[in-house]
Amino acid sequence: MTDMKYIAATIAVAVICGRVAGEDMMKNIFKEVPYTEGRMGSRQLVNEKPLLVMQIALKPGQQVPLHKANSNVHLLVLEGDVIVTLDGREFPAPRGTLLPVAFQTPMTIRNDTDSNASFIVLKTPNPSEMSSSGISVREDQTVAELVVEHPELKEKLEKMGIDYCCGGKRPLGEAVRAAGIEWPAFVSKLQAEAKSSAQKDWNKVPVTELADHILNRHHTFMKEQLPRMDSLLTKVRSAHGENHGPMIDDLRRVFDSLRAEIEMHLMKEEQILFPAIKAVDAYVSGTGGVPEIHCGSVANPIRQMEYEHDSAGEALSEMRRITGNYTLPEDACQTFAALYDGLQAIEADLHEHIHLENNILFPRSVRQEKEMQEG
Ligand SMILES: [Fe+2]
Ligand SMILES: [Fe+2]
Protein backbone atom coordinates (compact mmCIF):
# COMPACT_ATOMS: atom_id res chain seq x y z
CA MET A 1 0.00 0.00 0.00
CA THR A 2 1.31 3.48 -0.79
CA ASP A 3 1.87 6.21 1.77
CA MET A 4 -0.93 8.23 0.13
CA LYS A 5 -3.38 5.41 0.75
CA TYR A 6 -2.41 5.30 4.42
CA ILE A 7 -2.99 9.02 4.75
CA ALA A 8 -6.33 8.69 2.94
CA ALA A 9 -7.26 5.98 5.44
CA THR A 10 -6.36 8.28 8.34
CA ILE A 11 -8.57 11.01 6.92
CA ALA A 12 -11.39 8.52 6.40
CA VAL A 13 -11.08 7.64 10.07
CA ALA A 14 -11.57 11.30 11.00
CA VAL A 15 -14.66 11.52 8.78
CA ILE A 16 -16.15 8.36 10.34
CA CYS A 17 -15.90 10.13 13.67
CA GLY A 18 -18.28 12.78 12.43
CA ARG A 19 -15.80 15.53 11.70
CA VAL A 20 -14.38 17.01 8.56
CA ALA A 21 -10.61 16.70 8.55
CA GLY A 22 -8.87 20.07 8.84
CA GLU A 23 -5.21 20.94 8.74
CA ASP A 24 -5.01 21.11 12.51
CA MET A 25 -6.28 17.52 12.77
CA MET A 26 -3.96 16.05 10.17
CA LYS A 27 -1.16 13.81 11.31
CA ASN A 28 1.55 12.07 9.34
CA ILE A 29 1.79 8.63 10.84
CA PHE A 30 5.27 8.11 9.38
CA LYS A 31 6.66 11.05 11.35
CA GLU A 32 7.58 11.00 15.05
CA VAL A 33 6.79 7.28 15.29
CA PRO A 34 6.91 6.62 19.07
CA TYR A 35 9.85 4.19 19.18
CA THR A 36 10.99 3.82 22.80
CA GLU A 37 14.08 2.27 24.33
CA GLY A 38 13.42 -0.80 26.45
CA ARG A 39 9.73 -1.37 25.81
CA MET A 40 7.13 -0.95 23.09
CA GLY A 41 6.12 2.63 22.34
CA SER A 42 2.59 3.80 21.56
CA ARG A 43 0.51 6.90 20.82
CA GLN A 44 -3.18 7.58 20.49
CA LEU A 45 -4.30 8.84 17.07
CA VAL A 46 -8.10 8.87 17.47
CA ASN A 47 -10.09 8.51 20.69
CA GLU A 48 -13.81 8.62 20.02
CA LYS A 49 -16.64 6.49 21.41
CA PRO A 50 -17.07 4.41 18.25
CA LEU A 51 -13.36 4.17 17.49
CA LEU A 52 -9.95 4.09 19.15
CA VAL A 53 -6.88 4.25 16.90
CA MET A 54 -3.43 3.60 18.37
CA GLN A 55 -0.03 3.47 16.74
CA ILE A 56 2.37 0.94 18.25
CA ALA A 57 6.13 1.00 17.66
CA LEU A 58 8.31 -2.07 18.26
CA LYS A 59 12.09 -1.91 18.08
CA PRO A 60 13.92 -5.18 17.28
CA GLY A 61 13.19 -7.80 19.96
CA GLN A 62 10.28 -5.87 21.54
CA GLN A 63 6.75 -7.21 21.85
CA VAL A 64 3.24 -6.34 22.94
CA PRO A 65 2.70 -8.56 26.02
CA LEU A 66 0.07 -11.28 26.01
CA HIS A 67 -3.42 -9.82 26.49
CA LYS A 68 -6.98 -10.37 25.30
CA ALA A 69 -8.38 -8.12 22.56
CA ASN A 70 -10.58 -5.70 24.50
CA SER A 71 -12.74 -4.75 21.50
CA ASN A 72 -13.12 -5.72 17.83
CA VAL A 73 -9.64 -5.06 16.52
CA HIS A 74 -7.95 -4.57 13.14
CA LEU A 75 -4.16 -4.38 12.84
CA LEU A 76 -2.57 -2.57 9.89
CA VAL A 77 1.20 -3.01 9.57
CA LEU A 78 2.87 0.22 8.43
CA GLU A 79 6.53 -0.71 8.46
CA GLY A 80 8.67 -3.74 9.19
CA ASP A 81 7.53 -7.34 9.76
CA VAL A 82 5.82 -8.58 12.90
CA ILE A 83 4.57 -11.94 14.13
CA VAL A 84 1.03 -11.81 15.48
CA THR A 85 0.01 -14.72 17.75
CA LEU A 86 -3.76 -15.19 18.06
CA ASP A 87 -5.01 -17.82 20.50
CA GLY A 88 -1.72 -19.72 20.16
CA ARG A 89 -1.50 -19.56 16.32
CA GLU A 90 1.23 -17.50 14.67
CA PHE A 91 0.56 -15.18 11.73
CA PRO A 92 3.57 -13.58 10.01
CA ALA A 93 2.42 -10.04 9.17
CA PRO A 94 4.68 -8.05 6.81
CA ARG A 95 4.21 -4.37 5.89
CA GLY A 96 0.78 -3.73 4.42
CA THR A 97 -0.98 -6.60 6.23
CA LEU A 98 -4.49 -5.87 7.49
CA LEU A 99 -5.47 -8.45 10.11
CA PRO A 100 -8.82 -8.64 11.96
CA VAL A 101 -8.82 -9.90 15.58
CA ALA A 102 -12.02 -10.92 17.35
CA PHE A 103 -12.97 -9.52 20.78
CA GLN A 104 -11.39 -11.44 23.69
CA THR A 105 -8.85 -13.29 21.51
CA PRO A 106 -5.60 -13.86 23.47
CA MET A 107 -2.87 -12.13 21.47
CA THR A 108 0.76 -11.05 21.37
CA ILE A 109 2.64 -9.17 18.67
CA ARG A 110 6.41 -9.33 18.43
CA ASN A 111 9.20 -7.99 16.28
CA ASP A 112 11.81 -10.72 15.75
CA THR A 113 13.60 -8.82 12.96
CA ASP A 114 16.61 -6.49 13.07
CA SER A 115 14.54 -3.51 11.86
CA ASN A 116 11.92 -1.30 13.49
CA ALA A 117 8.26 -2.20 13.02
CA SER A 118 5.14 -0.11 13.59
CA PHE A 119 1.47 -0.75 13.11
CA ILE A 120 -1.93 0.83 13.58
CA VAL A 121 -4.48 -0.74 15.92
CA LEU A 122 -8.12 0.10 15.15
CA LYS A 123 -10.61 -0.76 17.88
CA THR A 124 -14.34 -0.54 17.24
CA PRO A 125 -16.02 0.47 19.44
CA ASN A 126 -13.62 2.17 21.84
CA PRO A 127 -12.86 -0.43 24.58
CA SER A 128 -14.30 2.03 27.11
CA GLU A 129 -17.71 1.26 25.55
CA MET A 130 -17.36 -2.52 25.81
CA SER A 131 -19.50 -3.17 28.86
CA SER A 132 -19.50 -6.92 28.21
CA SER A 133 -15.86 -7.15 29.26
CA GLY A 134 -17.24 -6.80 32.81
CA ILE A 135 -14.92 -3.97 33.59
CA SER A 136 -14.08 -0.99 31.47
CA VAL A 137 -11.01 1.08 32.15
CA ARG A 138 -9.63 4.18 30.49
CA GLU A 139 -6.17 5.64 30.70
CA ASP A 140 -7.58 9.09 31.49
CA GLN A 141 -9.76 8.09 34.45
CA THR A 142 -8.18 8.40 37.89
CA VAL A 143 -7.03 5.46 40.00
CA ALA A 144 -9.55 6.54 42.67
CA GLU A 145 -12.44 6.47 40.18
CA LEU A 146 -11.60 2.89 39.27
CA VAL A 147 -11.43 1.81 42.92
CA VAL A 148 -14.73 3.52 43.80
CA GLU A 149 -16.40 1.67 40.92
CA HIS A 150 -14.61 -1.64 41.59
CA PRO A 151 -13.50 -1.88 45.24
CA GLU A 152 -12.78 -5.59 44.70
CA LEU A 153 -9.74 -4.56 42.64
CA LYS A 154 -7.89 -2.85 45.54
CA GLU A 155 -5.84 -5.89 46.40
CA LYS A 156 -4.96 -6.53 42.76
CA LEU A 157 -3.82 -2.92 42.30
CA GLU A 158 -1.75 -3.11 45.45
CA LYS A 159 0.00 -6.23 44.19
CA MET A 160 0.79 -4.46 40.94
CA GLY A 161 2.39 -1.61 42.90
CA ILE A 162 -0.33 0.93 41.98
CA ASP A 163 -1.11 3.28 44.87
CA TYR A 164 -4.87 3.91 45.05
CA CYS A 165 -4.81 5.95 48.29
CA CYS A 166 -2.29 8.81 48.20
CA GLY A 167 -1.79 8.39 44.46
CA GLY A 168 -5.53 8.03 43.77
CA LYS A 169 -5.85 11.28 41.85
CA ARG A 170 -3.34 10.21 39.22
CA PRO A 171 -4.61 9.27 35.76
CA LEU A 172 -4.73 5.49 35.58
CA GLY A 173 -2.59 5.29 32.43
CA GLU A 174 0.19 7.29 34.12
CA ALA A 175 0.03 5.21 37.33
CA VAL A 176 0.17 1.96 35.36
CA ARG A 177 3.23 3.08 33.39
CA ALA A 178 4.93 4.31 36.57
CA ALA A 179 4.47 0.80 38.00
CA GLY A 180 6.35 -0.52 34.95
CA ILE A 181 3.32 -2.27 33.44
CA GLU A 182 2.25 -2.04 29.81
CA TRP A 183 -1.35 -0.83 29.40
CA PRO A 184 -2.62 -3.90 27.46
CA ALA A 185 -1.14 -6.24 30.07
CA PHE A 186 -2.81 -4.21 32.83
CA VAL A 187 -6.24 -4.31 31.18
CA SER A 188 -5.89 -8.02 30.57
CA LYS A 189 -4.98 -8.68 34.22
CA LEU A 190 -7.97 -6.67 35.46
CA GLN A 191 -10.31 -8.47 33.14
CA ALA A 192 -9.04 -11.81 34.33
CA GLU A 193 -9.68 -10.65 37.89
CA ALA A 194 -13.16 -9.32 37.32
CA LYS A 195 -15.91 -11.89 37.41
CA SER A 196 -17.47 -10.97 34.11
CA SER A 197 -20.88 -12.22 33.16
CA ALA A 198 -19.64 -12.34 29.58
CA GLN A 199 -16.72 -14.55 30.51
CA LYS A 200 -17.08 -18.15 29.55
CA ASP A 201 -18.19 -20.13 32.57
CA TRP A 202 -15.83 -23.10 32.37
CA ASN A 203 -17.91 -24.89 34.98
CA LYS A 204 -20.71 -25.15 32.46
CA VAL A 205 -19.03 -26.05 29.16
CA PRO A 206 -18.43 -29.78 28.44
CA VAL A 207 -15.29 -31.14 30.17
CA THR A 208 -13.81 -32.16 26.81
CA GLU A 209 -14.23 -28.61 25.46
CA LEU A 210 -12.39 -27.21 28.47
CA ALA A 211 -9.61 -29.80 28.08
CA ASP A 212 -9.24 -28.86 24.40
CA HIS A 213 -9.16 -25.17 25.26
CA ILE A 214 -6.31 -25.79 27.72
CA LEU A 215 -4.40 -27.81 25.15
CA ASN A 216 -4.93 -25.40 22.25
CA ARG A 217 -4.39 -22.22 24.15
CA HIS A 218 -2.06 -22.86 27.09
CA HIS A 219 -0.02 -25.88 26.02
CA THR A 220 0.61 -24.37 22.58
CA PHE A 221 1.61 -21.05 24.12
CA MET A 222 4.14 -22.71 26.44
CA LYS A 223 5.69 -24.80 23.67
CA GLU A 224 6.13 -21.69 21.57
CA GLN A 225 7.40 -19.34 24.28
CA LEU A 226 9.81 -21.55 26.27
CA PRO A 227 12.28 -22.03 23.37
CA ARG A 228 11.98 -18.33 22.53
CA MET A 229 12.89 -17.35 26.12
CA ASP A 230 15.77 -19.80 26.03
CA SER A 231 17.35 -18.07 23.05
CA LEU A 232 16.69 -14.59 24.49
CA LEU A 233 18.41 -15.67 27.74
CA THR A 234 21.46 -16.75 25.74
CA LYS A 235 21.58 -13.41 23.91
CA VAL A 236 21.16 -11.41 27.13
CA ARG A 237 23.90 -13.44 28.85
CA SER A 238 26.37 -12.78 26.05
CA ALA A 239 25.57 -9.05 25.85
CA HIS A 240 25.28 -8.32 29.59
CA GLY A 241 27.41 -11.02 31.22
CA GLU A 242 30.00 -8.52 32.34
CA ASN A 243 27.63 -6.37 34.42
CA HIS A 244 24.88 -8.83 35.32
CA GLY A 245 26.45 -12.29 34.93
CA PRO A 246 25.56 -13.82 38.34
CA MET A 247 21.93 -12.63 38.18
CA ILE A 248 21.46 -13.92 34.61
CA ASP A 249 23.11 -17.26 35.55
CA ASP A 250 20.72 -17.61 38.50
CA LEU A 251 17.79 -16.85 36.22
CA ARG A 252 19.08 -19.38 33.67
CA ARG A 253 19.37 -22.09 36.34
CA VAL A 254 15.76 -21.66 37.51
CA PHE A 255 14.45 -21.23 33.95
CA ASP A 256 16.15 -24.41 32.73
CA SER A 257 14.68 -26.49 35.49
CA LEU A 258 11.22 -24.90 35.00
CA ARG A 259 11.38 -25.54 31.25
CA ALA A 260 12.39 -29.19 31.70
CA GLU A 261 9.65 -29.73 34.29
CA ILE A 262 6.96 -28.07 32.20
CA GLU A 263 7.86 -29.91 29.01
CA MET A 264 7.66 -33.24 30.79
CA HIS A 265 4.47 -32.17 32.57
CA LEU A 266 2.71 -31.17 29.32
CA MET A 267 3.68 -34.49 27.75
CA LYS A 268 2.21 -36.46 30.69
CA GLU A 269 -1.02 -34.50 30.53
CA GLU A 270 -1.31 -34.88 26.78
CA GLN A 271 -0.48 -38.57 26.63
CA ILE A 272 -1.99 -39.91 29.84
CA LEU A 273 -4.23 -37.64 31.88
CA PHE A 274 -6.18 -35.67 29.28
CA PRO A 275 -7.13 -38.75 27.18
CA ALA A 276 -8.38 -40.37 30.43
CA ILE A 277 -10.35 -37.25 31.37
CA LYS A 278 -11.92 -37.13 27.90
CA ALA A 279 -12.76 -40.85 28.00
CA VAL A 280 -14.56 -40.46 31.35
CA ASP A 281 -16.43 -37.42 29.98
CA ALA A 282 -17.46 -39.36 26.85
CA TYR A 283 -18.75 -42.24 28.98
CA VAL A 284 -20.69 -40.01 31.40
CA SER A 285 -22.23 -37.99 28.57
CA GLY A 286 -23.23 -41.16 26.73
CA THR A 287 -20.98 -40.79 23.70
CA GLY A 288 -18.31 -43.37 24.59
CA GLY A 289 -17.90 -46.83 26.07
CA VAL A 290 -16.43 -47.84 29.44
CA PRO A 291 -13.04 -46.11 29.58
CA GLU A 292 -9.86 -48.06 30.07
CA ILE A 293 -7.73 -45.97 32.39
CA HIS A 294 -4.17 -47.28 32.55
CA CYS A 295 -3.33 -45.53 35.80
CA GLY A 296 -6.39 -46.95 37.57
CA SER A 297 -8.16 -43.67 38.21
CA VAL A 298 -7.92 -40.06 37.02
CA ALA A 299 -7.36 -39.08 40.65
CA ASN A 300 -3.84 -40.60 40.71
CA PRO A 301 -2.27 -38.60 37.86
CA ILE A 302 -4.22 -35.52 39.01
CA ARG A 303 -2.48 -35.62 42.40
CA GLN A 304 0.89 -35.79 40.64
CA MET A 305 -0.01 -32.93 38.27
CA GLU A 306 -1.11 -30.74 41.17
CA TYR A 307 2.18 -31.39 42.92
CA GLU A 308 4.04 -30.36 39.74
CA HIS A 309 1.91 -27.20 39.45
CA ASP A 310 3.08 -26.17 42.93
CA SER A 311 6.66 -26.72 41.90
CA ALA A 312 6.21 -24.57 38.74
CA GLY A 313 4.60 -21.86 40.88
CA GLU A 314 7.67 -21.83 43.13
CA ALA A 315 10.01 -21.50 40.14
CA LEU A 316 7.98 -18.54 38.84
CA SER A 317 8.24 -16.81 42.24
CA GLU A 318 11.96 -17.53 42.33
CA MET A 319 12.47 -15.91 38.90
CA ARG A 320 10.49 -12.88 40.08
CA ARG A 321 12.71 -12.65 43.15
CA ILE A 322 15.96 -13.00 41.16
CA THR A 323 14.93 -10.24 38.73
CA GLY A 324 13.63 -7.86 41.45
CA ASN A 325 10.07 -8.15 40.13
CA TYR A 326 11.37 -7.95 36.57
CA THR A 327 12.92 -4.53 37.06
CA LEU A 328 15.19 -3.82 34.11
CA PRO A 329 18.74 -2.63 34.89
CA GLU A 330 19.55 0.83 33.62
CA ASP A 331 21.83 -0.50 30.89
CA ALA A 332 19.22 -2.97 29.59
CA CYS A 333 18.77 -3.30 25.83
CA GLN A 334 15.60 -4.18 23.90
CA THR A 335 16.42 -7.90 24.09
CA PHE A 336 16.65 -7.69 27.87
CA ALA A 337 13.22 -6.00 27.94
CA ALA A 338 11.79 -8.61 25.55
CA LEU A 339 13.09 -11.35 27.86
CA TYR A 340 11.44 -9.82 30.94
CA ASP A 341 8.18 -9.16 29.06
CA GLY A 342 8.18 -12.73 27.79
CA LEU A 343 8.86 -14.29 31.19
CA GLN A 344 6.04 -12.25 32.69
CA ALA A 345 3.71 -13.38 29.91
CA ILE A 346 4.69 -16.98 30.70
CA GLU A 347 3.95 -16.36 34.38
CA ALA A 348 0.50 -14.85 33.67
CA ASP A 349 -0.40 -17.61 31.24
CA LEU A 350 0.76 -20.37 33.54
CA HIS A 351 -1.27 -18.95 36.43
CA GLU A 352 -4.44 -19.04 34.31
CA HIS A 353 -3.54 -22.50 32.98
CA ILE A 354 -3.03 -23.94 36.48
CA HIS A 355 -6.21 -22.28 37.74
CA LEU A 356 -8.27 -23.90 34.98
CA GLU A 357 -6.78 -27.32 35.72
CA ASN A 358 -6.60 -27.30 39.54
CA ASN A 359 -9.85 -25.50 40.23
CA ILE A 360 -12.13 -26.54 37.39
CA LEU A 361 -11.03 -29.34 35.07
CA PHE A 362 -9.56 -31.74 37.65
CA PRO A 363 -12.36 -31.51 40.26
CA ARG A 364 -14.99 -31.89 37.53
CA SER A 365 -13.28 -35.00 36.18
CA VAL A 366 -12.93 -36.54 39.67
CA ARG A 367 -16.67 -35.97 40.21
CA GLN A 368 -17.48 -37.51 36.81
CA GLU A 369 -15.38 -40.57 37.60
CA LYS A 370 -17.14 -41.01 40.93
CA GLU A 371 -20.49 -40.69 39.18
CA MET A 372 -19.36 -43.33 36.68
CA GLN A 373 -18.26 -45.75 39.43
CA GLU A 374 -21.47 -45.29 41.37
CA GLY A 375 -23.27 -46.32 38.23
FE1 LIG B 1 -1.81 -28.34 31.34
FE1 LIG C 1 -0.92 -28.96 34.27
CATH topology (fold) name of the largest domain: Butyryl-CoA Dehydrogenase, subunit A, domain 3
Helix content: 40-55%
Tell me which ligands are bound: fe (ii) ion
Q: How many separate domains?
A: 3
Overall CATH class of the largest domain: Mainly Alpha
- Helix and strand element order: HEEEEEEEEEHHHHHHH
Number of helical elements: 8
Distance between the termini: 64 Å
Class derived from helix and strand content: alpha+beta
CATH architecture of the largest domain: Up-down Bundle
Q: Tell me, briefly, the overall form.
A: globular
Q: Rg from C-alpha positions?
A: 23 Å
Poorly predicted tracts of residues? 10-19
**Main β sheet profile:** 5 strands, antiparallel
Mean pLDDT: 84
Spatial ordering of strands, largest sheet:
1-2-9-4-7
Strand content: 15-25%
Question: Characteristics of this structure?
Answer:
Butyryl-CoA Dehydrogenase, subunit A, domain 3, binds fe (ii) ion, Jelly Rolls, globular, alpha+beta, 3 domains, four-stranded antiparallel sheet, 375 residues, 9 strands, SP0561-like, 8 helices
What does this structure look like?
The chain is of the alpha+beta class and 375 residues long. The chain folds into 3 domains: 3-128, Jelly Rolls (Sandwich); 132-193, SP0561-like; 207-374, Up-down Bundle (Butyryl-CoA Dehydrogenase, subunit A, domain 3). The chain contains 8 helices and 9 strands. A hairpin with a 2-residue loop joins strand 5 and strand 6 (89-93). One fe (ii) ion is lined by residues 214, 218-219, 269, 353, 357.
